[in-house]
Amino acid sequence: MTLTATDAVLAFDREHLWHPYTSMTAPTPAHLVTAARGCELEVDGAWVVDGMASWWSAIHGYRHPALDAALTEQAGRFSHVMFGGLTHEPAVGLGRRLVEITPEPLERVFLADSGSVSVEVAMKMVLQYQRGRGRPERTRMLTVLGGYHGDTFDCMSVTDPVGGMHSMWAGLLPDQIFGPQPPSYDAGAPELATWAAGLRSLAARHAHELAGIIVEPLLQGAGGMHPYPAECLQVFREIADEHGLLLVFDEIATGFGRTGHLFVSELVTPDVLCLGKALTGGYLTLAAVITTDEVARGISASESGVVMHGPTFMGNPLACAVASASIDLLLDGDWAGRVRAIGDRLAAGLSPLRGTPGVRDVRTIGAVGVVQLDHPVDVIAATEAALAAGAWLRPFRDLVYAMPPYVTGPDELDRLLAGITAAVRAG
């Protein structure tokens, strides 16, 4: 039997390519993408709505003329140049835009090459800051259960040690301090007060060894799609200020409008802000770490005098050019109205699933819709059911969820909702 070109591609993929969190010897099926447009992907020859926005990054969808043009124009000049000792307009332009649109006093920009790397850099910055301020014994981070910050080593150390996919590395990672998970977004004042008191007490007991606090603000992402009250952000800020800690907000998933705020940091400003994913509209890998001048001065006062990190592709011109174009595209359009419309339609469309057999909870925040099951989802069955209904989803743990591109219209959202419903029933 002669293999078709598609069969040959999939066969090589199955035999030779690792996919995220997938076995090499017994891989789950991979589906072939051959084209993309707007909010759709051509998967296995059929057009389906992308409910994942390529892991939450492709906020403008695919093949957007403005982003294509920015990429092509920069490629016609130069695609990359080392950032050590050199600079270029795309990096400067992006840095200027980031300083303009993020809250004051965030003004010092480090351009990293992925979200995980940005968290690594942020944690290095926190430790170096404490050394520069004469407190080298402060080497641990305070965080909360339920969080997820990436797959590299320091990132894994502040990710939930049980539910965050990294439990096999226990004993090898830096030993951090984990407080209670923030209460759910609809929690009442007594529950919120109990949580805050517990976190304050924990911070006070460990203040002598703590360097900073790191959290995903307002929405914990890959740790469980858990939204929590905005009041918790002020608690983090007050604890940091009381004990001389730096507050790091990991907005890699929440930044650029996903929760309904351009940045959650507009509600409470951190000392260090990590951005990624949607920064380039899903075109290229790029992240940013933005700090206050006070943080920069503290780092400069440490024994090295410099941030001890320098990626080869730091400030990549292609990525910076398309990132600036993506930011302009976002801010020049009605991003808030689009996010609100998506959220409203997801909330209405998912509401009938609440209370149905196998469903524990249904929740939405911004342009995020989540159905939590009362059992681990059958990923293969749920994925196939969603595809058959016209949607691409990637469920995990006990969650079937969607974070679609902001360009997803009403008809496409209805197809996406049909896919979520099919996945829930199959999973």
TrEMBL record:
Entries under SUPFAM superfamilies matching the protein: PLP-dependent transferases
Keywords: Aminotransferase, Biotin biosynthesis, Cytoplasm, Pyridoxal phosphate, S-adenosyl-L-methionine, Transferase
TM stretches of this protein: none
Record site feature (Participates in the substrate recognition with KAPA and in a stacking interaction with the adenine ring of SAM), residues: 21
Root EC class: transferase
Chain sites annotated for binding pyridoxal 5'-phosphate: 115-116, 250, 311-312
GO biological process, one term: biotin biosynthetic process
EC number of this enzyme: 2.6.1.62
Positions contributing to substrate binding: 55, 148, 277, 310, 394
Residues with the N6-(pyridoxal phosphate)lysine modification: 277
PROSITE patterns in the cross-refs: AA_TRANSFER_CLASS_3
GO cellular component: a single term: cytoplasm
Pathway, per record: Cofactor biosynthesis; biotin biosynthesis; 7,8-diaminononanoate from 8-amino-7-oxononanoate (SAM route): step 1/1
Catalysed reaction, written as an equation: (8S)-8-amino-7-oxononanoate + S-adenosyl-L-methionine = S-adenosyl-4-methylsulfanyl-2-oxobutanoate + (7R,8S)-7,8-diammoniononanoate
Source domain of life: Bacteria
PANTHER family in UniProt: ADENOSYLMETHIONINE-8-AMINO-7-OXONONANOATE AMINOTRANSFERASE
Similarity field: Belongs to the class-III pyridoxal-phosphate-dependent aminotransferase family. BioA subfamily.
Job of this protein: Catalyzes the transfer of the alpha-amino group from S-adenosyl-L-methionine (SAM) to 7-keto-8-aminopelargonic acid (KAPA) to form 7,8-diaminopelargonic acid (DAPA). It is the only aminotransferase known to utilize SAM as an amino donor.
Protein name: Adenosylmethionine-8-amino-7-oxononanoate aminotransferase
Species the sequence originates in: Nocardioides simplex
